[in-house]
Design brief:
By secondary structure, the chain is of the alpha/beta class. It has 2 domains: 3-174, Rossmann fold, CATH 3.40.50.720; 178-287, 6-phosphogluconate dehydrogenase C-terminal fold, CATH 1.10.3660. 52% of the residues lie in helices and 13% in strands. It contains 12 helices and 9 strands. It has helices at 13-24, 38-46, 57-61, 76-83, 101-107, 154-166, 176-202, 206-214, 220-227, 231-240, 242-265, 268-287; strands at 3-9, 28-34, 52-54, 66-69, 92-95, 116-118, 120-122, 143-146, 170-173. A 6-stranded parallel β-sheet has the order 3-2-1-4-5-6, with helices on both faces. A 3-stranded mixed β-sheet has the order 7-8-9, with helices on one face. Helix 6 links the parallel strand 8 and strand 9 (170-173). Helix 7 (176-202) crosses helix 9 and helix 7 (176-202) crosses helix 11. The radius of gyration is 21 Å and the shape is globular. The model has no long low-confidence stretch (mean pLDDT 96). The structure holds NADP nicotinamide-adenine-dinucleotide phosphate.
Length: 292
């Protein structure tokens, strides 16, 4: 058993999936579900994923060895500020946020000297939200990126590493800036594109839209899955990873302009060579065991 008492603040997809893993692998004696939504707390108890559940953040973290922030990234700073005086000696605070620089900046100033903050991000998720969306296999065979700060306690990092390894994940240690740039291209830009494509379709006339839905299996449906992701979570991702997303978006705009020109000029060689390069990337993704 890694921990006596674990408090999970934000009992949605990621928080409840972690609770499933902690229960399944017997990683803690006691789990406390903490969520601002009372119905979520009730659901956590009904699903048997927590021993107690509460909306009060301060009470929720009392005596906990591990506090997991699983709220949208924009809420992490305020949550850390609220719980700071209730953290016990030696408590480890970690998060699961999809953005790291902004979360570290918002949370670290509120961590008292007697506690440790270990930022982390599981590279796993679905388009679903809420406690009923969670499942124990979510993190199995996936990466978890840990971005410890230079002054971070090594033993606390080891504990968080063990937690994620027990959930089936492989650990990568990374610098926060690098994390945010890599995720801007692998996750944030694809979500922005999906939201845009599906948004463009919703502006079409009603009869055209009906046919878009009918024939969506030709590619559109894959974007609808991504574009169904939680609006609050993704609002916060874009507001908190502004710099890296705008840099990648600039490159994307240049590349799409190149393709636009090639289509207009009938430059088949340009298009074929661009599409051949991307096919190679798909092979590399499959070879890396990330094909899905
Ligand atoms: P989710 O299913 O929407 O759950 C978030 C929960 O936190 C909700 O129940 C929400 O309640 C609650 N909450 C929000 N603000 C709170 C506050 N100040 N205090 C207490 N509870 C609060 O979200 P999720 O998908 O699990 O995402 C949680 C975190 O994981 C985010 O930081 C996200 O970046 C990260 N993450 C997500 C994925 C993914 O694919 N979903 C993958 C990796 C990492 P309300 O709904 O009432 O606001």
């Amino acid at each position: 058993m890694l921990f006596n008492k674990v408090s999970i603040i934000g009992f949605g997809l990621i928080g409840s999936s972690l609770a499933c893993c902690i229960r399944l692998h017997n990683l803690a004696k006691e789990i406390v579900a903490v969520d601002c939504d009372r119905t979520v707390c009730e659901k956590a108890l009904e699903l048997g994923l927590a021993d107690s559940a509460m909306v009060d953040l301060r009470n929720g973290v009392e005596d906990s060895d591990l506090v997991i922030l699983a709220v949208p990234v924009g809420a992490c700073g305020a949550v850390a500020e609220t719980i700071r005086y209730s953290l016990k000696e030696g408590a480890i605070v970690t998060d699961v946020g999809s953005v790291k620089s902004a979360v570290v900046e918002a949370v670290q100033p509120h961590i008292p000297a007697h506690a440790h903050f270990i930022p982390a991000h599981p590279i796993a998720g679905t388009e679903n939200s809420g406690p009923e969306a969670g499942f124990a296999e979510l993190f199995d065979g996936r990466w978890c990126i840990i971005t410890p700060l230079p002054e971070t306690d090594i033993q606390a990092v080891e504990k968080i590493t063990k937690l994620w390894e027990a959930c089936g994940s492989t650990i990568e240690i990374m610098d926060v800036k690098r994390h945010d740039l890599i995720l801007a291209i692998t996750s944030h830009l694809p979500h922005l594109i999906a939201y845009t494509i599906v948004g463009t379709a919703t502006d079409l006339e009603d009869d055209t839209m009906d046919d878009v839905i009918k024939f969506s299996a030709s590619g559109f449906r894959d974007f609808t899955r991504i574009a169904a992701s939680d609006p609050v979570m993704w609002r916060d991702v874009f507001l908190n990873n502004k710099e890296a997303v705008l840099e990648i978006l600039q490159r994307f705009n240049e590349d799409i302009t190149g393709l636009q020109k090639a289509i207009r000029k009938g430059d088949g060689d340009y298009l074929e060579s661009a599409f051949t390069r991307t096919r190679d990337v798909r092979r590399q993704v499959i070879d890396a065991g990330q094909g899905g």
